[in-house]
Write a sequence for this structure.
């Protein structure tokens, strides 16, 4: 349905009509649907936005208004009005779940936030909501947003780092504090001024957050301070999980082959944790120089097409080149580095360099480009498969990338030794 609407260039007005049909409070806050759902993957339930004027409960009206405020804050990061940011309005689901806010996600243009039942009318966690909105924006075909967002967002490292950047720049935190959420839980993931890529491997792996939440739960249990909210998060299943001791060895930056597919990193890196030092760098830089976080990174993302790595790729079989082409791969590392151009004074540039070093940015940021290169390699291979007529469904090639951080081979499953995809910088 989308492509047709785009060809007619009428998709904005078509969806705006949806929004116009909504309750005025929904319309004023760019929410096209507001449902209190029963379960995590359940989208059934009454749409509050379909109620006629005046019928919303005050709690729901307040919740929608608080989402509207977050939409406004995120729109400002991109110098847009909330309506330009969300022309079709956003579908929002609040669902009951033992993990509450920690179970939130966004999926195909909807945002789903968890709450521990019963819902007591407290506004959705603004930091978690804006994180999910950060994801949502990268899925959109909104021409007013930076064009490279779409390409970059195929990578899990970029996705989570960018979503946290949006939350942090809009709300100052990545998990908001809530009345009945103990600070050891709302601080389970927190950006401070000094987090660095010099931290050990264990800081970046999939166990780190769980280890921290478990320690928090254990201390709440010992002190007899579990409430109805934390009892779900600190449930038996979670507490019985064995978590290995912290890996103290230095961070090994994941290479292309470990950064294969969105949502399923082959490496044991947790993409949420990986983004923390990068966001910490921008947070510290903003605090020390007075530049807003937005001004430090958003212009560079807007100019992302000019910050790319050019690849020449070939597909060969039995020594014959069957397919060749070029790919421009957006380089998030270059975008991050270019924040230095925003530094107008010698002393600000000194601060930038100092923080760049103390956050070990040179060590951490190549991973983002490794991720983009891996995605480019796969997409080149896909272009080749699409080009074959009839398609050759079983053909698998060994793919190599030369001249990147090191030469890496990427195994696409079954490999035909006579076939290879080679990309060069
Ligand atoms: Zn996320």
């Amino acid at each position: 349905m989308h492509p047709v609407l785009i060809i007619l260039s009428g998709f904005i007005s078509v969806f705006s009509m949806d929004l116009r049909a909504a309750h005025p409070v929904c319309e004023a806050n760019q929410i096209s649907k507001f449902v209190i759902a029963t379960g995590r993957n359940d989208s059934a339930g009454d749409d509050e936005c379909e109620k006629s004027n005046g019928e919303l409960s005050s709690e729901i009206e307040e919740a929608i208004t608080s989402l509207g405020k977050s939409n406004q804050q995120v729109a400002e990061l991109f110098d847009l009005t909330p309506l330009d940011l969300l022309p079709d309005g956003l579908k929002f689901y609040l669902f009951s779940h033992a993990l509450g806010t920690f179970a939130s996600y966004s999926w195909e243009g909807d945002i789903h936030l968890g709450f521990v039942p019963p819902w007591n009318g407290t506004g959705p966690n603004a930091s978690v909501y804006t994180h999910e909105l950060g994801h949502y924006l990268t899925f959109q075909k909104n021409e007013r947003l930076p064009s490279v967002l779409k390409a970059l967002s195929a990578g899990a490292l970029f996705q989570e780092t960018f979503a946290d950047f949006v939350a942090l720049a809009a709300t100052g935190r990545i998990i908001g504090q809530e009345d009945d959420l103990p600070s050891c839980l709302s601080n389970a993931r927190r950006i401070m001024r000094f987090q660095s890529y010099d931290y050990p491997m264990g800081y970046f792996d999939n166990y780190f957050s769980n280890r921290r939440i478990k320690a928090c739960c254990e201390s709440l249990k010992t002190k007899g301070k579990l409430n109805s909210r934390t009892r779900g998060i600190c449930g038996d299943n979670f507490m019985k999980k064995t978590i290995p001791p912290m890996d103290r060895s230095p961070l090994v930056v994941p290479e292309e082959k470990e950064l294969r597919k969105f949502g399923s990193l082959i490496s044991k890196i947790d993409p949420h944790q990986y983004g923390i030092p990068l966001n910490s760098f921008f947070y510290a830089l903003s605090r020390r120089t007075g530049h807003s976080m937005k001004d430090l990174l958003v212009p560079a993302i807007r100019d992302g097409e000019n910050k790319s790595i050019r690849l020449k790729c070939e597909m060969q079989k039995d020594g014959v080149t069957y397919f060749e082409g070029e790919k421009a791969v957006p380089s998030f590392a270059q975008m991050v580095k270019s924040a230095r151009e925003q530094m107008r004074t010698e002393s600000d540039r000194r601060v930038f360099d100092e923080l760049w070093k103390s956050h070990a940015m040179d060590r951490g940021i190549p991973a983002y480009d490794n991720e983009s290169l891996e995605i480019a390699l796969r997409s080149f291979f896909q272009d080749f498969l699409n080009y074959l007529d009839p398609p050759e469904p079983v053909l698998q090639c060994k793919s190599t990338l030369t001249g990147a951080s090191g030469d890496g081979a990427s195994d696409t499953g079954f490999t035909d030794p006579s076939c290879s995809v080679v990309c060069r910088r």
DSSP finds 20 helices and nine strands in the chain.
